[in-house]
Amino acid sequence: MAQKRKRLPNLDRVNPVDETGVNERVARFCTRSIKNDSKHTALKLVLSMIDLTTLEGQDTPGKVKQLCQKAIHLHDNLPGLPTVAAVCVYPNMVGIAKQALMGYGINVASVATAFPSGMSSRDIKLEETRNAVADGADEIDMVISRGAFLAGEYAYVFDEIAAVKEACGKAHLKVILETGELVTLDRVKKASVLAIQAGADFIKTSTGKIQPAATMQVTLIMLQTIREHYYATGEKVGMKPAGGISTSKLAIHYLVMLRETLGDEWMTPDLFRFGASSLANDVLMQLQRQADGLYQSPDYFSKD
Amino acid sequence: MAAKPAHGQARAPINKTCKIFIGGKFPRTESGRYYLFSNNSESAPYTANICRSSRKDFRNAVVAARAAQNGWATASAYLRGQILYRIAEILEGRREQFASELKLQGASTRQANSEVDASIDRLVYFAGWSDKYQQIFSTVNPVSSSHFNFSVLEPSGVVAVLSPECDPMQFGLLALVSNIAPVIVGGNTCVLLAEETHPLTAISLAEVLQASDVPGGVVNILTGSKSELVDFFASHKDVNCIVHSEANNANSTRIQQLASENLKRVVQRPVAQWHGETMQNPYLIKDTQEVKTTWHPIGS
Q: Cβ of B233 under 8 Å from any chain A Cβ?
């Protein structure tokens, strides 16, 4: 199966995207009426799907430990909350995060391959990936070489993803397309096909360092590509929109889109994640409001 | 010059859509609800559909007010004063409009003109205090240790204002201005609920605010039913202070109880003659300020 999957697809055969159609479809996802009970369930699901992320040059071990504490104790005033899915950090922070999260069932995700630009040699990228996995990363978020992709060197990008997947070993691989730099939905679709064929466990929109980051349009294209792959092979690939999703309302729109594109089977942290840092607190504020009926203030929620 | 109507038909009047004011923009209420305002006149009847804001409009307004608060508080006192003065200037230029709306809200011509005058003067009055109230209320405190101890005022933050019921001699502009000016001159941002029976001047004042360099979100104005919204005004945890003039004891107690959720400052204004000199003083600014005291060690 895996052998069969790893063949460079003919990207010229990828159907072009109808952008107007996509916009109309997306607009419709945002008009669904979500009743209170469903909203409550959805908010908890969103929480359980969050990759709590800190990817700053100013990250310190203290900051990472604090973020891990936040992941474990989201908001102790509200009993029965799920934990987030993972904590996402730079490779040199993996060991610290791993130790802090030991025994809590929260994964450690590490970006790798010269994140966020991906402008480095393949040896270095592979070495970085192996180091992160050796330090205990359960998931690797790699970036594709956008320069090579835009220059049409699809084989280079394909081989690179396949090589990183091999270097990951047991760790899950998320492939960041950085859709903000691909510009058109056609290229997003091609890159999605390429990444899935090369062995991605998840495809992910953005690094969060480029604007625009995740949009509902690119996410829909990627979900549709996942669906096509599922119909063709029966394999389930995960999806992670990242960057710019900071409100519960928007997150719930994404869940509606997920449900209506891929169905219930994908409504799990194993197959869908949000890459976000400020989303968690907004969701917590909504849940607290549902609990006590009062509009909340960020003052009463830990920052990270 | 107005075009001559074709076929002898009268020109259809263009009426203003009355909208609310959130974050420097004029949305309709998200609820889509409205209530009818009428001047109860048989000779010159006037009616308007006024937005009946929902709790979600209030929530959105608080988000806008919170986002604007830091920038407004850190703007220089001089700039805040200039902007308040600018509001007065623009209001002066639109005095005819406000006078006619005050008349729709029940004033005589003389009363309307005098209320517009008083409102403009009051804005100028508070504009002048912007870089002076701090000197009046700040103190250097004597302490018996080697510390330089001083207290200064800081804005409370986001202030919710329930517009006062107008006393029979006022018609919905002076009270509005007198409630907004002292709050914002001190670096607070506010969400104001206009009085249900005097919405026209509140909506037009929002247009004046938008045209006078007041940053979006510093003043947000909603129209609608007070009894429906008062609980949310009082209990919202991201509101730092509530200003009201609830004469009814049970209602004012309820506001205090709900405000205690996050220890909001509660300011109760009298249902007063806003024309009076007593309603024009710097203590009105101090009401929505917090006192910060600093202990600074000095050599013995």
A: no
The interface predicted TM-score (ipTM) is 0.85
Smallest CA–CA separation between B123 and chain A, in Å? 31
- Selecting from B55, B232, B238 the residue whose C-beta is nearest the C-beta of A296 gives B238
Under 8 Å between Cβ of B173 and B203: no
Q: How many angstroms separate the first and last alpha carbons of chain A?
A: 42
Is A204 a residue of the active site? yes
In the chain, the amino acid numbered A97 is: A
Distance, in Å, from the CA atom of A113 to the CA atom of A122, rounded to the nearest integer, reads: 8
Q: Report the C-alpha gap between B113 and B107 in whole angstroms.
A: 9
DSSP-derived 3-state class of residue B51? strand
Judged by CB atoms closer than 8 Å, whether chains meet at A295 and B261 is answered as no
**Chain A within 8 Å of B261 (Cβ-Cβ)?**
yes
CATH of B48-297, one of 3.40.47.10, 3.30.360.10, 3.20.20.70, 3.40.605.10: 3.40.605.10
| Three-state secondary structure string covering A53-109 | ECCCCCCCHHHHHHHHHHHHCCCCCCCCCCCCCEEEECHHHHHHHHHHHCCCCCEEE
pLDDT per position as a tens digit, A142-201: 999 999 999 999 999 999 999 999 999 999 999 999 999 999 999 999 999 999 999 999
